[in-house]
Amino acid sequence: xxxxxxxxxxxxxxxxxxxxxxxxxxxxxxxxxxxGITVFGDLKPGHPEVTHTAGVACWMAVxxxxxxxxxxxxxxxxxxxxxxxGIMSGQEVAPLYLNHIIFLFVGGFMVALGMQRWNLHRRxxxxxxxxxxxxxxxxxxGFMLVTAFLSMWISNTATTMMMVPIALAIxxxxxxxxxxxxxxxxxxxxxxxxxxxxxxxxxxxxxxxxLSFVRILSIHFAEVPEISFAMWFAFALPLACVMLVCxxxxxxxxxxxxxxxxxxxxxVVRAQYAELGPMxxxxxxxxxxxxxxxxxxxxxxxIQIGDWTLPGWSQFFESGGLIxxxxxxxxxxxxxxxxxxxxxxxxxxxxxxxxxxxxWHIVLLIGGGFALASGFKESGLSLWCAQQLEGMGRLHxxxxxxxxxxxxxxxxxxxxxxxxxxxxxPVLAALSVAVGLNPLLLMIPATLSCSCAFMxxxxxxxxxxVFGTDRISMRDMARVGVGLNLIGAVMITAxxxxxxxxxxxxxxxxxxxxxxxx
Length: 518
Hints:
Layout (H helix, E strand, L loop, with lengths): L1 H9 L2 H28 L7 H19 L4 H5 L1 H8 L5 H4 L6 H18 L2 H11 L5 H16 L4 H22 L4 H19 L7 H13 L8 H27 L11 H9 L5 H19 L3 E3 L2 E3 L14 H14 L13 H4 L4 H20 L1 H8 L8 H15 L5 H19 L3 H11 L11 H7 L6 H30 L15
Antiparallel strand pairs: 1-2
Helix pairs in contact: 1-23, 2-3, 3-5, 3-18, 5-18, 7-12, 7-15, 7-16, 8-9, 8-14, 9-10, 9-11, 10-11, 10-23, 11-13, 11-23, 12-18, 12-21, 12-22, 13-24, 15-16, 18-21, 19-21, 20-22, 20-24, 21-22, 22-24
């Protein structure tokens, strides 16, 4: 990956050696701890599967946190160890790696790849940037809004890698004109990185952690009402907008970005937009497909607004209850394989070579989290955890949520956000039952907090990419990021208490009927 190459250039020899040592220790420490717990532990007498699952979970946690082996490879451990240790059969484990949530991710990603293949995402970005011309603050606003919007539908890594060269061209042009200082460039690049992470949290397909939450929730609580694309969007979008404003305000304040100044020459953007030429037939097809996909996702289920209900389109089908967001995503992706591109090469809008760029390692990583969550439930480890955590019920729910958000936010500064979510969500499902709270009250804030790592270059790919431009110092990222991490924890806590009550029906201190660990 390009961002890894960029970031590696900034790492000194000491840091590289430290990473190697961590990986080497993690490689042996994971199996030693896992085997030690499995052989010598006895968490629940008469139920060895509880101890065995805990051993596998600890092994995976060490390997995920140290990245001693590739994250996706660690995610495959349940396929081997669960049947071997009598936790689940191979026939039960294998399907967990391919389900409707996985197809939601794959289908959505294929449509995003269609946008990238025909440069539609670049056309959208450049066109929107031209609308925000003027003062430095307007430019920063434009970059952050465009990046956040694209990151809702395209991976935050791909979005950042596309926006950074555009930002670099504009910043260099402004510095040559004498209308911007070096601090403006720092603010723009940090704004792109932060907006990519924030925007991805607003939709289910924006980041793998959101998809992991939905599936792990349904694994632990079979009767939980579906968290649809529209429901998540209604809850997470307002929070993302507030976080985007906070990030923008922090960057303007810290780096002294002016609201007024000389007019900025956007000829670089206009030139890049002109190079794209007129919109091709394939671009129009992908745009129509993308818009229709978003509308179908948002309107599949009934939308409740006060006492008024807007019916969902799935209700008009006799088998509408069987349709999932994953079905919709795959249907719209398949259309792109059928429609001709009319580019003179007898190709289709989407081909399998392009579709092969779906990050299958992320698919395995997500599936590994689902397998681990199922192991927690089937072995009884979730119930055992719930019994051990009952004492935490004395804490006020919002204090518990706030502390959880801070912990998850700073933990993901050093570990993979998806792996971190998949390690903690099964435990939080058990904790919510133990303290008598709605599981959504703990699991959603933990999930969103994994997208709020703003402090270190290693925290997220967008952070690493912008750090690799040599225009941002570790100090610059840290002094803005620490504050944003804490603001994120506060905002997520407030959102789950206020917006969560309206959109998701969450009541503090009230446990819904469906919240039972079997």
